[in-house]
Amino acid sequence: MKKNLQLGIIMDPIESINTKKDSTFAMMLEAQRRGWQLFYMQQADLFVEDGIVSAYMQQISIKDDPQDWFKIIGETTQALHTLDCSLMRKDPPFDMEYIYSTYLLELAEKQGTLIVNRPASIRSANEKLFTALFPDCAPETLVSRDMERIKRFHKKHKNIVVKPLDGMGGAMIFQIREGDSNRNVILEAITNNGQQTVMAQRFLPEYVDGDKRILLIDGEPFPYALARLPAKGEGRANLAAGGTYKGVALSERDLAICAKVTPTLKEMGLMFVGLDVIGDYLTEINVTSPTCIRELDTIYSANIAGLLMDSIENKVGTL
Prior knowledge:
seven-stranded mixed β-sheet; Dna Ligase, domain 1
């Protein structure tokens, strides 16, 4: 099969990434190590003309240097399907522009290239609502914009968390305890006075121990998770919210959750996925731009991106 692949990367501005934490950077490092060519794009660079999906691309070389990590070595405008594979690694917000990008990438896929993750599946798999497909893995959950219904859910479970369906990095996640005098204000704000659908879940006491990010590569779980610990006095364990982390081996329950979701992920062409688990419960399935490769690689001297590139090589070989 073809060895020196051409890899496109659709991502946020490369000059603004934190190379020590950026999973996309880890993927590019591994691809370059294999002799692959890297073509960097942003969302705005994608276009369709006469039915062909193309993009303005910058060919780059990279190095693992936090002061000087990329160099532009060429530029071109060409059809996306002339590349072997493109990684969709643009971070949310999951807005209409993001959705339009998935339409373009889906068309490029039909024209003969591999897109990771599959664009139609990124579009249909809301990272929080996706857990509703696996109710036996998730905590008690309500998805609604009806404030009275959410209040009844709160009364039933006494201690809940509420979060928007389109948030990332721990933003806008609120805990509402029994008797919380701010309950109504929180619900009015997060639902925009009943105009915006949100998710409410029973609060899991295990949250004080942090949540776990489990990475699945083409359905196979990496055997260790990144346990993200909340900052002192903080209810969110997300690293973007100031938490710290440590590595932990996957438990039997973690592996059971992975086994439950894997057939669906493989069927949907979701090759790189991050599961968020608190205690024994699945809370999110991250499909847009999962992270934590760099942290886990550092702790375990691993090469998670290498596992993904192996899968991509195998998939490209069957196209």
